[in-house]
UniProtKB/TrEMBL annotation:
Pfam families: Thiolase_C_1. This is Thiolase. Gene3D superfamilies: 3.40.47.10. Residues 241-382 form the Thiolase C-terminal domain. PANTHER family: ACETYL-COA C-ACETYLTRANSFERASE (PTHR42870), NON-SPECIFIC LIPID-TRANSFER PROTEIN-LIKE 2 (PTHR42870:SF1).
Amino acid sequence: MSTGVAVVGAAESDAIGVVPDRTALQLHAEAAANALAHAGLALTDVDALFTCGLDFMPSLMVAEYLGLRPRYSSSQSIGGSSFVAHLHEAVRAIQAGACEVALITHGETRRSNRKRGVQTRPQHFDPWLPDWQWERPYGVDAPPSAYALAARRHMHLYGTTTRHFAELAVSTRAWAVRNPRAYYRKPLTVEEILATPYFVYPFRPTDICLVTDAGGAVVLTSAVRARDLAAPVIEVLGSAVAHTHYGVSQMPDLTVSPAARSGPAAFAEAGLGPEDVDVAELYDSFTYTAMVQLEDLGFCGKGESGDFVSGGRTAPGGEFPLNTSGGGLSYTHPGMFGMFLLIEAVRQLRGEAGDRQVESPEVALVNGMGGYLSSSATAILGVAR
């Protein structure tokens, strides 16, 4: 089954990692130009823009910078899953005839902002925000502590261990070794990780995503128009979005993410199941983030993700290719990572992943997560037949 919409271009900005000589807008623009070139299209073809993360009106800012006057525009933000959610929205807009060519862009300079003294999140006390009242006073004031809370609950209920987390980190790094654009490319071992001090228990530094600068973009159009372009047609087979809470203290179940809702809905639209997926790109802000998604998307049972990722199963040569770019743990993570999951999935399906190419994949699943395991956006992509 297909939605009748295709991803025809996907690319990063010219530079990623530590890029102190670029602004976030420049990274948006570089990525947009590269993705459009990848699609064989021009800015003049674009009539819809989706983006978030720059300011209170990011689509206005990016459109002005690119010289676009789109007839469809969206800046909705639900954290790191936003760009996969944008794909879901773009599919609906193209299906409805509201636009023809949708451009989704992302750009952040979170790494360089640290040295520039730029605050990327409010540091002052705001009594109106629920988390400032009910979570931060108890030490849950940043993603590591919130995700650690969820991970510890999973460990308590299911016997998941820090060795399981290390197994996944090692496999993800093995993919990054094959990616010339990955920030970390030095191979890891499980024993090396286990000898490292904790950052926030149960997480060691290798369990936690990078903080980088990066831009990315994808381009979508109708499958009919896509066939007239000089590019492989990667169809969107299904997509869905879900969110369950804002503050982690309000999470219905610390061991169940909203991927348990978005995943089945996307599979149902695609007419496929977990067994049909050849390569998976899952949000890995933390090792636990990827592991809970494996369970909630149906790749293994609840509480079984620790054993599932052990023994190099998700590493190059393993039976379940996962986060083949090196993921947010080793490749790049500029604050919101969902865009880069889409880019890698498209590269794998187009056979453009170089040394990390999975053999003849036909179906890829992308799942973005946002907030404190708060939002999920799932997309299932396939090579057009």
